[in-house]
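tool_call predict_complex ligand=glutamine
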Amino acid sequence: MREDGKEKKMANSLKEEFLRSQDEKGKSTAFSFLDLERYALPLLKEAGVEEAELDLRLLLQEAFSLDTKDYLFGKREAVFTLYRKRAEEKPALSSSRVTGDLALSSSADEEPDSALNRFFSFLEKRLHRIPLSQILGRQEFFGLSFLVNENVLSPRQDTECIVERILEEEEKWKSLGAQDKRSGKKIELIDESVGVAGCEALSILDLCTGSGCIGLTLAKNLHCKTVLLLDKSDKALEVAKENYRRLFLEQESAKEEWKCSMLSSGREPDPNRIREQGLNPSLHFLESDLFDALPSFMEEKGISAFDILVSNPPYIRSDVIETLDAEVALHEPVLALDGGGDGLDFYRRIAKEGKRFLLPGGRVYLEIGYDQGTSVKDIFQKEGYREVEVFQDYEGRDRGLYAVSPT
Ligand code: GLN
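tool_result ok
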């Protein structure tokens, strides 16, 4: 996150203005979170921030490292008193706070004034319509916390329905037993102790992966042998790699530690417990303009083709981008949004070039814009894909395309 001199100055003057207003009320440094809210809320509303109340609470919680319960209970107390009290309670607090994804970035014994500075710096950014996710540096997707920054599209809840659809379908096929509906192939039964019985390990290609939210969530939830995350932007791939590291490698080392402690305690590791935590598939990252660099990479890695091709490609019409919310239009990467003159450029390329990378019976799942169902369906049907179908998000709008490889 950038913080140039000008931004810092503005954050300082917001803080000074706030402190002056409290002085005038005779509160000096005895102000509460409620006072901070009363000062900042009108500013956020005036700047056009839609969910101003919620955003404000989350920024305050983040700046002061408070969970929702502590925040709501302490809202009327003097901020600095509450902060000091927490510092005294620190040992008890730290042990009860290790759960969950909330990154408690500050230590409880730092000066309360640094937390206040942090809040005003967040506020200043939000007034510039920098998305909340970029200020917090994370966005939740499908129950997982993803690192985000200005180089990736922040994961949207809308996109979860694509992941949901894939998981549902895989579940269905798994329950069909040993016969693979798609290829008629016999499914090799996999050892119960290492994978999901009756289901072949999948190879998945996630195009325009951005933060990696789709591919990594699938890797977490499915029995995969290969997951390839591809993006044109090296900066986006850096984010995807970091998310992989956080979601898989850090947890993997925790798992190892757990196994070691089980062994040293003389108890047999419980295979159920290992299965629950899943297998780590082989994850690949590739910088490529859609399929351009894919053939040579697959050859090098010995990957023949994919069972699933998934993507949330850029699909906004070029002329619509500047009319979107300021958060998106000014602060999210245009590269992740711009789908060309009619918004359909990527669907044409994926439909045309994608088939040669799919296994027989391989499936395509794409996010689409709410008004693109008919056009995208048409593109895929004309390219010979089978079972082409548009599906809806949780609000009933067209949001996804499903298609089966022509072969
Ligand atoms: N749904 C995104 C938005 O709200 C656009 C995503 C895309 O172009 N893939 O802006």
